[in-house]
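User: Before I run my own analysis I want an independent prediction to cross-check against. Here's the chain; please return only the structure tokens and, at the end, one sentence I can use as a sanity check.
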Amino acid sequence: MKRMAWLTKKEAAEYLSVCESTIDNMESVGMLDPRRIYLKPGAKRAIVRYKQEDLDALFEKRQRGRPRQMLGTGGLGLGISPPPSVPVP
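Assistant: Structure tokens:
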């Protein structure tokens, strides 16, 4: 059985070759759904982790030639160049 990998925000950003604020933006528009783990009941701070398979799925969508301006938020993309056959708007 394959073990699921969970990444911190910093690790997720490095994995996708983007900055951490891009991870925040992707989360705010619903592209990423992180897991929040509260260590104590009623705690205000949480440990946030991202599933590596979710990041892989995002990368796969990007590799299939989705437009560079994926989010409609001023050109925010994944920082991954599309294949040469796909025109970039």
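Sanity check: DSSP finds three helices and three strands in the chain.
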